[in-house]
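Anyone opening a protein record will find just a pair of labelled lines. A complete record is shown below as an example.
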Amino acid sequence: MTENTANQYRRRTYVKVSPIQKTQLINLVFQEQWKIKKAAKFLYVKYASAKSIVLKYRKYSIQKKMPTLPEIKRCHYKPLRNGKHNYKIICLRGGIFQNTIKNFSLKQ
């Protein structure tokens, strides 16, 4: 057997990432806004594994938490007239609730 064929049959070692490391990685990337590469290096996780974890979290967790509104209600505006105006802004970062801004103003 030549050296090339021997290298093909050699198996790559896989290391499982613990659930604690996964949650730490997600918190660093989405809450602390670290780069994936920096967070992976900090947690001693391979970059490819970290990237897969983040992409999977984005696909399954964040997108499922987002409300599915009809297209006509997603982003719209309404001209303000005299009277009381109510609006509420909800801020999400990484699919996790951050804060709410409410305004009840009277236009004069």
Notes: The chain has one domain: 3-107. Strands lie at 83-93, 96-107. The chain is about 45% helix and 20% strand. The helical segments are 3-9, 19-31, 36-43, 47-65, 71-74.
